Amino acid sequence: MYYTYVQKSKRDGKWYTGCTGDLRKRFKLHNENKIISTKGRGPFALIYYEACANREDAFAREKYLKSGMGKRYLKNRLKRFLSLTG
């Protein structure tokens, strides 16, 4: 399985969207500041993920979630969660 995920920085509140074959390992690496794109922005909270059967689908989904329509989808999908966490 491949995973497309969204995590929220507890430091600056910004979201990061990524893709991986090992979600637990990648999340741990983000929180250990070992991923260049998020270094210094942790700790993170995993707020959303999707599982895909193959790598291509997961990366296509990541690209979509980073688009304007994808961001609107996520905000609508996570509406209740976002209202609770601010």
- Number of domains as seen in the coordinates: 1
Radius of gyration: 13 Å
The run of helices and strands is: EEHEHHH
Overall pLDDT confidence: 93
What does this protein look like?
This protein is of the alpha+beta class. It has a single domain, classed as GIY-YIG endonuclease, CATH 3.40.1440. It contains 4 helices and 3 strands; from the N terminus they run E-E-H-E-H-H-H. A hairpin with a 5-residue loop joins strand 1 (2-9) and strand 2 (15-20). The longest helix has 12 residues, at 55-66. It is globular and about 30 Å long. The mean pLDDT is 93.
List the helices and strands and how they pair.
Elements: E1 2-9, E2 15-20, H1 23-31, E3 44-52, H2 55-66, H3 68-77, H4 79-85
Antiparallel strand pairs: 1-2, 1-3
Attribute tags:
27% strand; 3 strands; alpha+beta; GIY-YIG endonuclease; 86 residues; single chain; 44% helix
